[in-house]
Here is the input.
Amino acid sequence: MRRGLRDRVGGMSLQNRLAFFAGVAVCLLCLVFSFLFLNVAHHAATLKLIDEVTADGELAAYYLEHGERVDPLPTIPPDLIRPVQVVDPRGRVVAASSDLRGKPAMSRLVPQPPRRTATTVVCGHVLAPGRCDIVVAQRVRRGDGEWTVYAAAPAVPFYVHPWLPALLLAGMVVFTGGAALGARYLVSRSLAPVAAVQRRLDDIRNTDPSGRVPVPEARSEIHFLAGSVNHCLNRLERALEEQRRFSTDASHELRTPIAAMRVQIEDALMAPDDTDVATLSNAVLPSLDRLEAVASGLLVLSGLDRGAGEQLQPVDLAEVASMAQGGRSWTKTVVDNLAPGVLVSGQPSRLRELVARLLDNAERHADTTITLTVRRDYERLAQDGGFASGTAVLEVADDGDGIPPDQRESIFERFARLDSARSRDAGGFGLGLPIARLIAESHGGSLTAQEPAPGARGARFLLYLPLSSPPGQR
Here is the structure.
């Protein structure tokens, strides 16, 4: 049964569920209030009744205390007529109101000194079968001993009066229904912007990927939710556009060497007797090298996008730069300015690859000289690419034609190349710099192309990484 109720409630809409729970909560509060109110009303009515019953017996007690006659009882005012009995010290009823004549004492309760009155509840007995009465006993001192005057009245029922629980029940129904309807209305009004967002998202999914959800003017939670949804949609649209552009560029990059190899092989097949294997191999190998480079670059990008790699460890940036230069034949002069002990937290193989790709790019475009610099910078501010613990800086500069200022950011897009001297003819394939930037960002740093140093020419790339030790540990 409990599970069935839970399933039915779980199947409701949000506004119906909140209305249901609001109605239940108000109903429970009304029940608690009604119970407390009836208790207070019953207690107050009982105290009032005790005062009235006490007043009934006080007239007989007055005459008895002053030695007046007690049988028959003194005349009782019409508004004070209650069952009254007078009992002598030996426990005999010596006087009683007309409805109790000839009956035993209604109670054996006797107030104990110093109290003069006592109250009890008597059910059935001489008063009325099946009914409970409040009995007030008053102790009266007379010459021959202690006398007792009893007065009684029917006890107040728990509900006090029939109209009181009926009124409370009607109020509970009204308040419960009002709370449920009010909660449903308020939730419906509050969720109206959410419904609009949902409808717009459905439209975006089905027809218009460039659309955006409406943002309510009121700066509520839904306002910020809609803003976050639009931000996610912006990023998603950019990612999809980049994915489409990347797929197109990658297809083009792969198709170019494949087409070149096909032409060379088809020419060889058309004149097999005139084809030298060594010549054909030498003609095809550059295209295979280019295919291998593109495939390798795509695999590296895939690993960086997934966050794959070795564990982070302290790395000397100068040692990484030295290792990236080793084992290769340089066509240009490399000038090293490597400060030792510049430690960063990173993956050594990734950082070597980053430096190697910057050096490859510089070697393709330098005229005669490449300058490689590693240094610390504790004064660089965060807005300038710096870090609170200090900044490790790696700089690669060449003396080539340089990069136009308006293209210094676009060169980091995948498969992007300039139409000038830094072009496809220089041997690049448009993934080196994007890979280098991704490696920098995966280490918490940044890689940018900036103005050449004063008095210099060419391209200048700056890598900023956080030092692995704070300034106090220089």
